[in-house]
Structure formats: C-alpha cells, structure tokens
Amino acid sequence: MSSGLFNPINPLVADVGSPPIPEAQSWTRRYDGAYGPLINLSQAVPGNAPHASFLERLASMAGEAKTAQYGPINGDATLRQAYADEMSRLYEGRVEAADTAITAGCNMAFFIAMMLLAHRGETVLLPTPWYFNHQMTLDMLGIEPRPLPCRAENGFVPRIEDAERLIDERVRAIVLVTPNNPTGAVYPAHVIEGFAELCAKRGIYLVIDETYRDFLPQGMNRSHGLFTGEEWRRNVIQLYSFSKSYAIPGHRMGAVTADAGLIEQIAKILDCIQICAPRTAQAVLPWAIEALRDWREENRAEINQRAQVFRNALAPLPEWRIESVGAYFAYLRHPFAGVKAQAVAEKLATERGVLCLPGSYFGPGQEGHLRVAVANVGADVLATLTERLKGVTL
Predict the structure, then answer these.
(1) Are strands 254-257 and 357-358 parallel, antiparallel or unpaired?
(2) Which of 102, 146, 254, 300 is the most buried (most CB within 10 A)?
(3) How far is the C-alpha of 214 from the C-alpha of 300, rounded, in Å?
(4) Dist CA 167 CA 163 (whole Å)
C-alpha cells in the first residue's frame, strides 16, 4: 500500500516548509557532551519560572468548574478591562475593554489579524529578517509576504522611504515587530509613528507586534505614542503576548488591541478557530497585571543584564560580530564567508553544544547570520560562550 496521501492537500499548506525549530533541535541528538551541558539558545522561552503566587492561583483556578466552561469569544470581561487599563496607563491614552480581544497566544493574534485584513492574492509588507511564523502564516493564507529590508547599517530598523516604494494597490498592511524577533532591535518611537502616518496616508493598516514590549531597555517604558490620541483607531492593530512577560508560554495567552469595530469583526474569526482563549490563565492575569508589576521590572532588568553578559562573552572573539542585540535576541554575524548559516548552526550544535538558529530561517539574504535567544539561560551560562565559540572551524 502506498504511504503517500490518497488525495492532494491544499498546496498553500503543502508548499510551506516544516516548522524550523524542531529541525534545529534534532541536531542536538548528535552532541556528545564534550564541552559540557547543552546550551539551548534557539527558542524564545522565558528563562525563569512563573511567580510562585501566580502558580498557586493557577492551581486553584484549574480546580474551579467555571474555568472548564466556555467563556466569551473575545476574552473574559475582567481580563479585557484589566488589560485595557494597563494599556491606557502604559501608553497614556484611552483604550477601552471593547478595544481588546484575548487570544491563544500571539501567533494566533497575528493569524487573525492577517485573515481580517487581507485575502488571497493581496500583499503584506514584512520587515526582513522576518519572524518565520509570520511568513508561514501569510504563505498558508495565500497572501504575499513582501520583504521590507532592515539593514545592519541602520540598526535593523526599517526605513519609511523603503516601505513607501514597496506599496502598490495590492498591499493591505505593514507589519512592524519591536523589540524585534529575530534581531532584538528596538524601533525608535518616531519611526513607528512615521509608519502609522504613512499607512494612514496610503489607506492601509499598521500591525505592530509588541510581544517583547515588557523587556525594553531600562528607562524606556513604551515603544511609541500611537495610543495617546484617537487617530490609531482608523488603522492601527497592536499584538501582545502575556506568555513572555509572565513566563507562561504553555498557557497560550495573547492579546489584540484595535478599535472596537474591528474587534467585533475579529470575534467572527475567533469563534471559528478558538471559541475562547484558555480560561485558567485568564482568571489569574487580572490580578497579575497589577500585583506583579515589580516582578516584571526585575525580570526586565535581568534580561537586559543577560544581553550585556552576552556582549562581554563575545568581546574576545571579534570574528563573531554582534550586529544587533536587545530584549530576548541577538543577531550575530558568523565568521565563515560563503558558508550557509545552517551549516554553521548545525556545527555549533553538534560539536560545541550551543543551539541557535540559522539566519536562513528568517528570510532571504540572511545566510551570514545566526539568531541567539539570550534570554533563555542565566548569565552564568552565557559567560561560558567565550570558550564554546573559540576556535570553531568549518
């Protein structure tokens, strides 16, 4: 009997590559431990456990019959209100509970935003290097991911003039990711606000993914001032992840902020693909948003410190050039000209026990780079990278 599929499947799905992180993780099975325990710097996983009080409340809520029932499509009212209040405080503007929706993670928030804004044959501008799940989502929806180049010499920050040249009648939205995945770059507020003005002028949407906004550099408490007025309601959609900020990625909690009219449209999509977001974490987060603010600040300071430790560890190895670092990630130029990034990453994983991701996972023109998730491990582990990377040959 043939092992092939009896009938062909949707080519938009079949033509998309397999999720890349499991492929990279498979390389570690060939590491013999010669340089010590594996250092996993591949996936953006919080390097600390959830707060103990958060875990206690999760356990209690998981035992409540009400959290086993369906909830409102757009999220529990208490969480939507608490999140809207936090948005209003953080951005010094007016965000209402009706302007928010709770999703099963930020990847779902992105998926529903793209389904809302564009259909097959239309186009969305994605900053490159791009987050691979963004590109995969667009490909599966039949939407063209048009690269918006972010260059090392510009700190991997996209330029408004580049975007303007790429906009045609098929473009429905521009996506920005700040702090960025994979580069860690933090976009200046005036750049973000300039993109919002460009999108308004051209009659398209700005979708801004702020998954890592709670890990901005010390002293920088918000990425932009878009929410201080009311103009954002016309064409701005913001995405967020509770997963990183509260160290609960397995509970799949994200959020969308948009004008209430758009949220009503989003509810149609959510009802078909999630019905409601996970209820247990929704029940705890309204307390956590206020009660764990100091804890989140401590985590921000710690992760920014890890980024500095990473810089220090690579300082004696100038051939490994850090071209961008911030929040969760560093974008590293490897020293092997003409060698594919996957070959370099696989070598590091199998021989040195350091797992990071090749730049080729993040779009065209990235073969010279590796993405390093510096937030995954403690500063003491990051400090050992000097010896791990010294003398690597290909």
Answers:
(1) unpaired
(2) 102
(3) 7
(4) 6
- Helix residue spans in 158-212 (DSSP H): 160-166, 189-202
- Decide: 254 and 103 in contact? Cβ < 8 Å: yes
Which pairing describes strands 123-128 and 171-177: parallel, antiparallel, or unpaired? Answer: parallel
| Class of residue 287 by CB neighbours under 10 A (exposed 0-12, middle 13-18, buried 19+) | middle
Strands 369-373 and 329-333: antiparallel
| Closest C-alpha to 361, from 329, 393, 391 | 329
Q: The pTM is what?
A: 0.95
Which residues, in sequence order, are CB contacts of 280 under 8 Å at separation 6+?
Answer: 58, 61, 62, 67, 251
DSSP state of 117: H
